[in-house]
Amino acid sequence: MNEKELDQLKIFAHHLSEYRLPRWEELPDFDIYMDQVITLIERYLNILNDGKQQLITSAMVNNYVKLKLIPKPIKKKYNKEHIAYLIAITLLKQILTISEVRDGISYQAKISGTHIAYNLYCEEQEKAFHNCAVQIMKNAKLSMQEDIEYDAMVVKMAAQALAQKLVAQKIVYIQRDTNGKEKEHEK
After folding, report:
1. Count of structural domains, the chain
2. pLDDT tens, residue by residue, 73-96
3. Range of the domain at 60
């Protein structure tokens, strides 16, 4: 990796370490229309956007309603709960299937309530971004001091992402199996 590329990665690491998701209390307290929701989600999740495609579209939102990932809008308006769900779904669908996202969100909301679950997710995602940024900066310093092959970081980050994805999926599957068995016993 040349010095210019390394500088670009350092800038990205800085953005990751400073990135902050809006908390429940910071989401709009008034209802908004679909186009406003799309604009808001795109702005909140700008860290994901490479400018090549939309992160969320009205068709996606409509599908999430049909799949019961989010509640139906009221008179074509969306509220704080919708926005929180859409932020979490948009982030989580980067690594999990839609059914895993639905089950994971449902499980966490059932345990602690929607707004606490949402804030918890925001905190944990920010910690993960920060930890990634620290790793990037640590490797950048080592690279400059010891002439280490910096490109190996791609492999390291991808391997960690896969391992963490597998653990998240396993937890969702365990929860799904446990809830299914509990429902059978209730009958």
Report:
1. 1
2. 999 999 999 999 999 999 999 889
3. 3-186
